[in-house]
């Protein structure tokens, strides 16, 4: 009896020490509702990154727990609690939307797990509320808008018309644009979130006759806007520079209406580096569609976790070691050079991108010149971390 | 620029914005007309109406991409919504005709979620292309640099024609008379030897087809993605509350009112407030009020005429 108990305890110990060598990653993104397509891009990119790392991250048996935030902050909060307490994950990654990130930010970083955003980059977590437990493989939200503002300035457009949805990210976008644009703002128009008809705004643009239109209109409304802009015959008359509006997720639906529209991104399908060529080719072969920057960022998130965990030798409980490994991780980022700012948000080149055609005839967003070289976000100076 | 020329341009801008408001209103009318028929005559609140709008848009998108034919697109879309609508009616809704509105809302909301997910599973969550059919892929130039797309003109023309046709059918034909009679006293009609179930099914089918047709008309303007009908469904309910339930004229009046309020609010309210307040404050207040405007109109209508502006006449209720 005593022997049996001893064997039992021994087996239990073996089992638990075995379990410590399992890496558990919670992958949270939006998989239902209008934002579901973006969640799919993130997940597919991440899973391809895991494939390329040999089906496991950091050399450890890896369990991925996929979780749907439904684009509802309260649901995201409950899901984060489940991932942390029940699944006992070491990392939570994914996260399409900024409001979701803000709702789970505190619980995750206070729990001891690491939060790796593969997309959302709201300003608080880049500035004063930055954390040793938070890393990003995307950008801070302002950076893309800043690149568009710089682009409008560089092209010498004198009069700009600004259009964004009436919520915090819309106002942040317009401020990001203004941080680099020095010309005259003829009007700034805020539309209702989720708007489907832009005829009133288009008539205002036609009457104001600006040199350029800046638009931040993510998701379905963005597709509606570019279709209506083209139908009004404006695409050829007034250049439309947009952020998070015309991209590889909206291009298939936008069709020819998107031709000639310009955006900015830290990544494009045709960036010429070995890691990106492999990523794009394998992604298209595996999933049958063209990856977007969402997929590229999530792929890098898998690479970041893989490289960091590997360099700690699997010591997942040594949080300081994992943090240092994440900071110093080296891996072939699909954007080219990988470098983190002091606030753990990447410093990247931002390119001008616009719709084009890949060698096999598929339409995709292709990159042009660098607009902002090795650009770090403006909030890093408010983050007290030094390393 | 001379002052006269500036004034002319202002008049053109105002006219274009009024046209935009009418066009948005007509689009809402196409959705609201079906909803108000089903609500007013069958006394069923059908939230799945938004899903039928989506079904029409998807069917139209598939046909428009495959064939590019205008005629096929606007025929197949309502047909698809009709088939789905009749299936919904036979499988679920007919059991709800005699139950309270709360049961209907719960069941049809469930249907709406189910259909949104079914479309996502079938077509994926990415938005789909819906090009303007070639026949109407051009625009009319207006003085002052503005232009108006032919597709939007088509929405206005078709919507007004449909409104007229519905009005004539309901007011002037035997079928219309039966429908009106059924809404007043269905039991009496049954005693007179009319197949009331076929009549109600027909009404529901027409409502579904109208939603599908609206989906196809909105397709080239909107983003074709799962859940695309949810937002417009809310607007359609605002329309029928303002116009009065069950009345096609009411739906038309309500739609035009909502379309004009919303468009003119978005077009001019912020500029108007800038005359009184500093620009930053106007940018805060203007868009907020503009997005509330139609709900304010609804609140006023409910206060002054709780039955709506042009309710269907229903003796005995």
Greatest interface and its residue counts?
A-B, 45 and 52 residues
Strand sequence of the main sheet of chain A, in spatial order? 7-6-8-9-10-11-12
Quote the distance from N terminus to C terminus of chain B: 62 Å
Low-confidence stretches of chain A: 10-19
Strand content of chain A: 15-25%
CA radius of gyration of chain A is 22 Å
Q: Structural class of the secondary elements of chain B?
A: mainly alpha
Number of helical segments of chain B? Answer: 11
The major beta sheet of chain A can be summarized as:
7 strands, mixed
| Count of extended strands of chain B | 2
Mean pLDDT of chain B: 90
Helix content of chain B: over 70%
What portion of the residues of chain B fall into strands of 2 or more residues? under 5%
The helix content of chain A is: 40-55%
| Number of H/I helices of chain A | 13
State the end-to-end distance of chain A: 56 Å
- Strand sequence of the main sheet of chain B, in spatial order? 1-2
As residue ranges, the low-confidence spans of chain B are none
Mean pLDDT score of chain A, rounded? 92
For the CA atoms, what is the radius of gyration of chain B?
21 Å
Inertia-based shape of chain A: globular
Question: Which keywords apply here?
Answer:
heterodimer, A: 387 residues, alpha/beta, 7-stranded mixed beta sheet, 5-stranded parallel beta sheet, 13 helices, 12 strands, B: 317 residues, mainly alpha, two-stranded antiparallel sheet, 11 helices, 74% helix
